[in-house]
Write a structure and sequence with these properties.
This protein is mostly helical. The protein folds into three domains: about 30-45 and about 260-450, no CATH class; about 90-205, no CATH class; about 460-675, Hypothetical protein af1432 (Orthogonal Bundle). It contains 31 helices and eight strands. A two-stranded antiparallel sheet has the order 1-8. Helix 7 crosses helix 8, helix 8 packs antiparallel against helix 9 and helix 14 (about 300-320) runs parallel beside helix 16. The chain is elongated.
């Protein structure tokens, strides 16, 4: 039964760039980046948490946080801004302009003294300067004669110039005018002149300092920036807002600081998150490509890693939305690394640990010492489950994980500065989180195995149990084939250990590689037990057809019994496209046209080291078993001859084996077969059995 992954792959383009290995990996990376950015960038305030409304439940700090009180910080910064005095600049042209205005005023007065009467002079001067000089001053001016007016003009210009040489602000004008009046009192002149000088001088005096708006704003901004943010330390477990209390902006900000919760989509956050995730994903892809080639080449493993990363990120975001007050120690942090280890391998578990830890940081789920705790718990869990090869052992591993998370949570809480009581509470949460992790691992492992078509070591051990229905049939209906398969499994398993392949897959694959012989067991020599050989009365072509059909028939049985893909691949590949030489030679000897293709298997060449090991073990075991005098040297020569033949027939081209691997395989097979098929010593019969009466004749008489 095809897995869901295999069904989805049927919808993928089979031509074009996306059908290539790089195209598929890039497409997967882009999809992961987009899907991972969504929970980071799209953030919402927890359900029911709204400013001005009662809190629907109590929100507690799930970890120690340093909360920046923006409201208090802003108030201090505004106070600092208000405390900065305005910045003024001295107007170098103010004195010159005022002196010019004074001279112009007196010149106008002198110009009309001779040509107009008194009332006309007053009217003329008020019309031009009435906005600055009052009527009594103008009336006093026109009452002076020309000489007195000229003297008043000189004195006024001199006094104005002296006063305006100093720095005068708007609020200093009254003081400057008083200074001018006092100075005028010291100059000897008539009362009328003094009145005119003081009146005109005080009317024309202006500020010499003007407000520099830009410099003032810069000074205020600098003062505000010098104010340090008001940081509030919130301890783990401390209430942020209790149920029923009116929610303030401060409460929402504190909850936001726990989980990065913001309403709506922030474009800047989206861009930043996408850049970070792109760097993270493509860096991880480069690491896998460089150091884990077998994972890179297997799209299924990459999809598992992507699914676990996205699953943990969405689980974390969902928790922060629905229950942000939930302690992070309750979260099944090691779950994704454990599943990655069981489904792909320990290195994949470490990769997932790095990815989920950084994802938790971007989501605001963890920070500070908790990051160390997350990494420590995940790595320790990987070590615990890395060598599990029985499903029952998951229960023991679950116990280790439970205890591990409890200890790590306790230590993390203490390291965060919490009291011993709080640390014990965190340890209890950690124990519960470990229990959740263990339960989810047991529940999700079969799900992932089915969805992605993964055959874990646990599944292989279950298949390798002699009680498996198909193996029981093989044992009873084709016992010779069963014994041959067991011997093949021993050979392949030992060789797999020697070259670093999967020993368990090699052994279990060997058990099932010849199940197709169940359809016609009597046609295979190991099941004939010295009886009649049906091939003696069958044409070589038909015999070859019957022999090669056991691969196709084995595949049919594998589908019937729902064997995993790794096993069905071995069934298809264990003979590759090799030739049934015995019947080919027999047909050639009989004369007539003989086509080589009629005597070759229709499978495919081994595509994995395990399938190649089984192909070689299958061939050498049968060949050595048929030797008349299986001496060690004869056995080694036979093994090397068969291996050389497979290489020359290009059967091992796709098996990813090196020359060193092949030499180790030859040595292992030679050593094991020599220990099994060594020449037997023919023991002589006991003397009593050769001559039953000898003992009686040789016994002395007792009489």
């Amino acid at each position: 039964m095809p897995s869901l992954l295999e069904r989805v792959k049927g919808l993928w383009p089979t031509t074009g760039w996306l059908s290539t290995v790089p195209g598929q990996r890039v497409a997967l990376g882009v999809a992961v980046i987009i899907l991972a950015v969504v929970p980071i960038a799209v953030r919402v305030v927890p359900i029911g948490l709204e400013v001005g409304q009662p809190a629907p439940r109590t929100f507690r700090a799930t970890r120690p946080i340093q909360y920046v009180d923006t409201e208090a910080t802003q108030a201090l910064r505004e106070a600092a801004r208000e405390g900065v005095n305005p910045v003024y600049q001295f107007d170098q042209d103010a004195q010159t302009e005022v002196r010019r205005d004074v001279v112009e005023f007196f010149s106008s007065a002198l110009s009309v003294q001779a040509s107009l009467d008194t009332s006309a002079q007053v009217e003329y001067l008020l019309d031009r300067y009435g906005s600055r000089v009052d009527t009594p001053t103008v009336e006093a001016l026109v009452s002076l004669d020309t000489t007195a007016t000229e003297a008043a003009a000189r004195n006024t210009e001199s006094l104005v110039a002296g006063v305006m040489a100093s720095r005068i602000q708007e609020n200093d004008l009254e003081q400057a005018r008083n200074q001018l009046a006092q100075s005028a009192e010291l100059i000897p002149m008539s009362l009328g002149q003094r009145y005119v000088v003081i009146g005109v001088g005080t009317a024309f005096i202006e500020p010499t300092l003007v407000l520099d708006q830009e410099a003032t704003e810069q000074a205020r901004e600098a003062a505000a920036e010098r104010v340090s943010p008001v940081v509030t330390l919130v301890q783990e477990g401390e209430n942020i807002v209790a149920k029923g209390e009116i929610v303030t902006e401060r409460d929402v900000e504190m909850v936001r600081s726990l989980g990065g919760l913001e309403r709506g989509v922030d474009l800047q956050s989206v861009v930043a998150s996408m850049v970070l995730m792109a760097m993270l994903i493509f860096t991880t892809g480069g690491f896998i490509y460089r150091f884990e080639e077998h994972v890179w080449l297997r799209m299924r493993d990459l999809l598992i890693i992507a699914a676990l990363l996205l699953g943990m990120m969405y689980l974390t975001r969902g928790t922060s939305l629905l229950a942000p007050e939930l302690s992070p120690y309750l979260m099944p942090v090691p779950l994704a690394p454990i599943l990655a280890t069981l489904l792909v391998g320990p290195v994949a578990g470490v990769i997932i640990t790095v990815l989920t830890t950084i994802g938790g940081l971007l989501l605001g789920f963890s920070g500070g010492v908790q990051v160390v705790a997350t990494v420590l718990a995940s790595l320790a869990a990987i070590v615990v489950v890395a060598n599990i090869n029985q499903r029952s052992h998951l229960f023991y591993a679950g116990g280790y994980v439970i205890a591990l998370q409890g200890v790590v949570s306790f230590g993390t809480s203490l390291a965060s500065g919490n009291a011993i009581q709080q640390a014990l509470g965190a340890g209890l949460y950690g124990l519960l989180g470990g229990l959740v992790t263990a339960v989810l691992t047991l529940g999700l492992l079969p799900f992932f195995e089915h969805i992605f078509g993964v055959t874990t070591d646990i599944r292989l051990l279950e298949l390798g149990n002699p009680g498996h229905p198909l193996l029981r049939r093989l044992m009873t209906e084709a016992p010779g084939t069963y014994n041959h398969s067991v011997m093949t499994g021993n050979l392949a398993e030992t060789a797999a250990e020697a070259i670093g392949a999967n020993p368990l897959l090699a052994r279990v694959g060997s058990y099932f590689h010849d199940v197709g012989k169940l359809r016609r067991p009597a046609f295979f020599v190991e099941n004939q037990a010295g009886g009649v050989n049906p091939h003696d009365t069958t044409s070589p072509t038909l015999s070859a057809l019957i022999i090669t059909a056991h691969v196709r028939e084995g595949l049919e049985l594998a589908k019937e019994y729902r064997l995993p893909r790794e096993i069905t691949d071995i069934i298809i590949e264990h003979h590759g496209t090799s030739m049934v030489s015995y019947f080919y030679n027999k047909a050639a000897e009989s004369g007539g046209a003989v086509h080589e293709r009629d005597f070759r298997y229709s499978g495919r060449r081994p595509s994995s080291p395990e399938a190649a090991l089984i192909m070689l073990a299958d061939s050498v075991e049968a060949a050595v078993r048929a030797l008349g005098k299986p001496t060690p040297q004869h056995i080694e020569d036979t093994v090397r001859k068969i291996v050389k033949g497979k290489i020359e027939d290009h059967q091992l081209d796709d098996a990813h084996l090196t020359l060193a691997d092949i030499e180790r395989i030859v040595q292992v097979y030679t050593r094991m077969l020599a220990s099994v098929y060594h020449p037997r010593i023919e023991y002589p019969e006991p003397p009593a059995r050769r001559d039953p009466d000898a003992r009686q004749r040789n016994e002395p008489s007792r009489t």
